[in-house]
């Protein structure tokens, strides 16, 4: 069972520069659309960004976003607040989509890194402006994705002391 993509996935920040094919991009996006959402609102929207001007503008407000520059491509997951049934659930919905795609990316033997956006207001504002996002579309998180140029061993963070049953 140790080869499950959910167990071997790591954050990859170095990429070969080889362009991601549209077919692979589509495979990844399908995993986003397969993710769970509260009340099945499917409130996510996915913005594929490979315009280096936009990725560089984002770098100005987020110095740990270099994986996006190295990958040359990012998938920004946004939430449509008009579709939200319960306030605040959009964040979990978008996070689930991101994680589903990260696992699919691992299965496809590609590399990816989650790049944080929400709740940082500067990062959100730059993306809202450069991508012309409508008022009700909120950027939650970016995935830098591409062909990996580094390998990482699976993490070994299992800690039974952090597992509780029927209380603390
Ligand atoms: C909400 C969130 C935001 C993150 N933001 C960034 C980021 O902006 N830049 C980055 O290089 N890594 C980012 N990461 C990746 C974490 O640094 C990484 O998951 C963590 O160090 C554990 O390493 P692993 O993913 O290889 O297991 C983020 C992860 C999460 C879940």
Automatic annotation (TrEMBL):
Coiled-coil region list: none
Biased composition (Basic and acidic residues): 147-168
Residue ranges of domain Nitroreductase in the record: 8-59, 81-147
Names of required cofactors: FMN
Keyword hit for Protease: no
Key words, A-Z: Flavoprotein, FMN, Oxidoreductase
UniProt cross-references to InterPro entries, sorted A to Z: Nitroreductase, Nitroreductase-like
Family (UniProt): Belongs to the nitroreductase family.
Protein's name in the database: Nitroreductase family protein
Organism: Fusibacter ferrireducens
Organism lineage: Bacteria, Bacillati, Bacillota, Clostridia, Eubacteriales
